[in-house]
Specification:
Length: 359
């Protein structure tokens, strides 16, 4: 890969290769944009098949965080990090602390958090070397498990969609099909049960399905069938790429509102196919921003307060509403409208930064 061409094409500010011989650390930190604030994004610990694969992943993820933070109305930019290796085999305190020193050296341009292959306990270790970390445990002033907030935000995304489609934010009597009842999906089920929603679930882990049936009386279907359940809202809460040329023609829902990242297999083409099929799509990075909004509350001058954080997460309702309105006004897909809203916010506030009086 020609690195400067690649990072220039999508305008990355900084890409840092991190190495520590003693602990075996090999990591890349990508800061896509700090135009709205420090680039916040998690640290992924993954056994990439090649350096190029890891680099491509961190670049893609960092850029997505810029859009996600901007669309969520946060004063944060986009960044992400990857550590090469198998977390079960290669993760040590020494390696995490060596990594944390690289994060610290960026002076706050990049704020890290947990992601695939890293945990809150790992972030507590990172905290020993740098204050530029979020998602540490409550005892260290952190905000705890982000999945709870992600699920709560998803509920409010569903309410925004319900208001749009059915003229009422209530989900009583609606039917929601949830694919994946892990951390986010399970917390979502609790909210849906409170709303007295009919629930159908599927998960590759039979125990998770059994738990959903026992806890909220959900109906269960096979993993291959969940997207085709006749329902009001289909909620993909497991893997990305689930909205594709095979699944979209089989959808029998009015809307898709889920937490899974990168749900559209083919970007704009999948978004157009959904619109053509008459399915209202709540863009994933807007609907699933509750966890990010919650974690951003750790940066508040007064520190993290759970009640204030939950109030902030409810803003997902307004954010999704704004996307739906923009899509209608511009005659574009909801996915395109979400991108545009994020880009407009970055452009508008970047202009404000330019006229900031130097101190
Ligand atoms: P998780 O690993 O706790 O749960 C995922 C669940 O999906 C598991 O129960 C797993 O068994 C199941 N699953 C895996 N493959 C499946 C398949 N093909 N069909 C059905 N079920 C399947 O993960 P999570 O934290 O709940 O996150 C779920 C999704 O939401 C992921 O895509 C994640 O990137 C995204 N997300 C999570 C958060 C968060 O706060 N946790 C925030 C934003 C986005």
């Amino acid at each position: 890969m020609d690195v400067f061409d690649r990072i220039g094409a999508d305008d990355y500010e900084q890409v840092v290769f991190c190495h520590d011989r003693g602990s075996g650390l090999r990591a890349i930190i990508a800061v896509h944009s700090t135009r709205l604030g420090p680039g916040l994004g998690g640290t992924r610990f993954y056994p990439y098949a090649s350096e190029d694969e890891g680099l491509e992943d961190v670049l893609r993820l960092a850029r997505a965080m810029t859009h996600k933070a901007a669309a969520a109305g946060l004063d944060l930019g986009g960044g992400k990090a990857v550590i090469f290796g198998d977390p079960d085999r290669d993760k040590t305190e020494a390696l995490l602390r060596a990594y944390a020193r690289h994060v610290d050296a960026l002076g706050g341009r990049y704020l890290t958090a947990e992601d695939v292959g890293t945990t809150q306990a790992d972030m507590d270790i990172v905290r020993k070397e740098t204050r530029f970390v979020t998602g540490v445990s409550r005892e260290l002033g952190g905000s705890g498990d982000p999945s709870i907030a992600t699920a709560y935000g998803l509920l409010w995304a569903m309410k925004a969609v319900a208001l749009r489609l059915w003229g009422d934010t209530s989900l009583v009597g609606r039917h929601v099909a949830v694919a994946g009842v892990g951390k986010v999906g399970r917390a979502l089920l609790g909210h849906l049960a409170e709303e007295r929603t009919r629930i159908t679930v599927a998960d590759v882990t039979p125990a998770s399905v059994e738990r959903a049936v026992a806890e909220v009386g959900a109906e269960a279907v096979a993993v291959e069938k969940i997207h085709a359940v006749e329902c009001d809202i289909y909620a993909p809460c497991a893997m990305g790429g689930v909205l594709n040329t095979a699944t979209i023609p089989e959808l029998r829902c009015a809307a898709v509102v889920g937490s899974a990242n990168n749900q559209l297999a083919d970007g704009a083409a999948s978004a157009a196919a959904l619109a053509e099929a008459g399915v209202l799509y709540a863009p994933d990075f807007v609907a699933n921003a509750g966890g990010l909004i919650n974690i951003a509350e750790e940066l508040a001058p007064t520190g993290y307060h759970p009640d204030l954080a939950l109030a902030a997460v409810r803003r997902v309702f307004e954010n999704v509403t704004a996307v739906l309105q923009r899509a209608e006004a511009d005659g574009v897909t909801t996915a395109a409208a979400a991108d545009k809203l994020a880009e407009d916010r970055i452009a508008a506030l970047s202009a404000v930064h330019q006229i900031r009086i130097p101190t």
